[in-house]
Every structure is written in C-alpha cells, then in structure tokens.
Amino acid sequence: MKAKECCGLVGICSDSSVSRKLFFGLKVIQHRGQEAAGMAVADGTKMRWHKDAGLVHEVFDKEILDELEGNVGIAHVRYSTTGMKTADEAHPIMAKTTMGDIAVCHNGELTNAEALRDHFRKKGAGLEGLSDTEFIVRILAGELEASTDPTRAISRTLAKLRGAYSLAILIGDRLFAVRDPHGIRPLCLGKMKDGHVIASETPVLDLLEAEFIKDLKPGEIVEVGANVAKSYQIPTPRHKAHCMFEYVYFSRPDNCLDGQLVYDVRRRIGEILAVESPTEADSVFPVPDSGRAHAAGYADGSVIPMAEGLIKNRFVERTFILPEQRDRELSVLLKLNPVKSLVEDKRIVVVDDSIIRGTTMRKIVQILKKAGAKEVHVRIGCPPVRHPCYLGIDMKTREQFVANEKDEKQIAKEIGADSLVHISLEGLVEAIGHPMEDLCCGCLIGEYPVPIEGERVRHQETLKKFY
Ligand code: SF4
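# iron/sulfur cluster complex -> structure
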C-alpha cells in the first residue's frame, strides 16, 4: 500500500472560456486525488459549479463543461485526509457573501481544525461539512463582511489558520492563489497566451502551453488576472518546510517543484542509495511506476544493469475495490507479474520510492522468489516512515507503518527480503537540494514545522512571532 496523495488544484483567469482548460489541467494532476473532482467558473455576473465523486472524466462531460461558462475558474481533485468521503465534500467549497459567491479549493490540512470547530460550535453555527476547508470558507466569508478588500480579508483569514494549505479562491469573478507561510504544499504560476494559470504541478502549465513564472513563495497571496498577477506577502517564519514526500513520491516526475525537477531528484536519490548501500547483484528492477527514476539512478550509481523484471498491468484501476481478503491478496499479482527469464537464478535489487505498510513489497519479494530469484535485496529511496502526517497526507497512525518500532533487519525479515536498506536522511536531503531546515521531514523524524499536540515542533521561537 502506498500513502494516499492529498489533493490537487488548478485556477485560470483568461480572455476566453476556461472550463475545458481546467478540465484538462485536472486530468494532468489526477494522481493527486481520485475520490472526487469539482470546478467553479464565473463570467462576471454569475458563478456556476459542478462537483461529484469520481475521476475527472467521470465527473465532467461535454454538456457539463459547456454549462460552466466563464473566463475565470478554479478546479480540484480530491483525496480526503479529513472529513467524510462524500461527493458533498468535493471541492470547491462554496458560500454566499456580501461580495457575491465565493469558492475555495484547498490542498493540505489544517492543524487547528478542532479549535476552529469549537469556535464555530460556540457561536452556534451549523457545521454542514466536516472538512477543514469548510472552516476556511466560513472565516473568509466573515472577513468579507468586515472588509470590502478581498486581499485584506484573505490575509486576515490566513492569520487564523495553522498547518498546510495551498488555496485557489474565487471571490465573485476575482481569482486568488495562496501558499501557506511554510510553503508545505506546492503551487506555481504560469502565463498563457491569453491569461494566467495556477496549479499544484508544472505539467499543467506545460499542457496549457503556459510559460512558468514562479513557484508561489511561502505566505504569498497572488491576485491572478488575465493580464496581470499581483502579489502580496503575509509574514512568514524564518524557515520554509516543503514536504519532502512531494519529491519522493507524490509529484509527477516531470514536475519542477521549488526549483528542482522531481525526476532529477529521484535519480539522485537512486545514485546516493547505490553509494550508501553497495550490493552484489545481477540486475536492478524498478517497482513500476513509482520506483523507475530511483532505480535508474541506482543502476547508474552501482553499475548494475537495470531490467524491467516486473511488468505492470496498466488496466487495473487505482480505485479497484476487492471485496474478499483472498481477492485482495491477488491484487498485487494482478498488478505486477515477473519476467521469469530475468529472474531465475538471479540476484536482484528491487528499488522503490518508499515503504508504508510493506504489504506490496512483501508480495513483490514473494513473487520474485517464487519465480526463482536467488536473492532479493530491497532498496528504498526514502528513510523509514515512522510518524504520522498531520499536513495533508493520509498517514495517520504509527501502527500502520511497517517501520514502526522496527530496525531494517526486522523489516527485511517481515517482508522476506535478503536485505533491506533505506536511503539516509542526509542522503535524501542532499538529493532534494534544499537545506534540511527548509524541508518538512515530520513523518521521518517526528518533528513538525507547526505545533501539533503531543508532537515535537521545530523552530518554535520563530513560529510564535507570526502566530
Ligand atoms: S509529515 Fe511527511 S508527508 Fe506530511 S508534510 Fe511532512 S514530509 Fe510531507
């Protein structure tokens, strides 16, 4: 089992209709969320929206996109980390205000959602949804009552939020993009021929033939117009906290994130891993598709040839539901099959990006041994994940991690491998190319960039200044 992605968002302001551009933008970041999709579009007089459970192509068709008429809009793919998994909670989350309709798409997770929930309960407000984005919308709606300046209302809203949030906000027909003060989740800005686009990942810009302008800075608010993009800055702590898992697993390899091409980072991870854990072997196998770039780097660094020894069935849906335990056991076999001639009597290094529960890797080792592998050595492009994520990734309990309270030898035994080595934290940081103090490595080291009850927090002095 892999960690589930969080969410992804796209926003466009253009001289022409945006619904199709948003639709294709969402298709590019479908990997960031497969439970629900939604879109809100404004034409200067009216805001229209549509959202539902399902993949992007299941939620939208030609008729729906035709009805979403307008030159400015926001869109979202969702995997829920908080709240119920219902179509109602698909984004955008909407509200009516004195400034007209507003719509918000959120990627991330608030760490003070419980405090906000109490606050609204005490005020007697009904809580329609359970997702933390609902709180953002309510606070913003309240601030818009108090101020007719949307940028001021947004910055006053942000002062009440803690945690990870990249936001696309539609206020009437004005589009705003926001990145939290630590820059935990990604968000970039691009210039199209006839407008501007914001997106969670740069391949959306590539698809729309938009020129990359920048990654939003931590704490940056951008008002995105068709011709200009105006920037504002809220106070930020001294250090950033970009999620290291975006580089290791979540982002597409062709995404350029905060100045680093994710594919290059993954290759460097593989190369460093090869230096840190030299292995006598005949072949390096990637786990398709997640371990491909890491394995290519490992093969380069170790001078052991890479081979496609595991073949992926491309037609198994990611949302495939297997009702019986026995069927679930078969699911890895359905997805991956070994090439026997590459396996028989061979010493194999299997490379993947990360291990969470260990169920998939255990099955892969079994498959290879059953196909005649002499030795199976597992190499992982991420240090052991032992702590929960509170910042937008669905890894919530320590018990779910195979590395919980175990060392590498014990994990190797549990998954049946002849050896297991994870990249070191120092090696990972070197491969990513940002200083350690500008990365979130909370799920690796149990120390988080924002206060979380019962957990260690780093740089607390600096954070207090802003909060
Ligand atoms: S805890 Fe882990 S997954 Fe969550 S934001 Fe930090 S690095 Fe990313």
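# post-check
The domain at 7-236 is CATH 3.60.20.10 (Glutamine Phosphoribosylpyrophosphate, subunit 1, domain 1).
The pocket of iron/sulfur cluster is lined by residues 184, 243-245, 389, 391, 393, 440-443 (CB under 6 Å).
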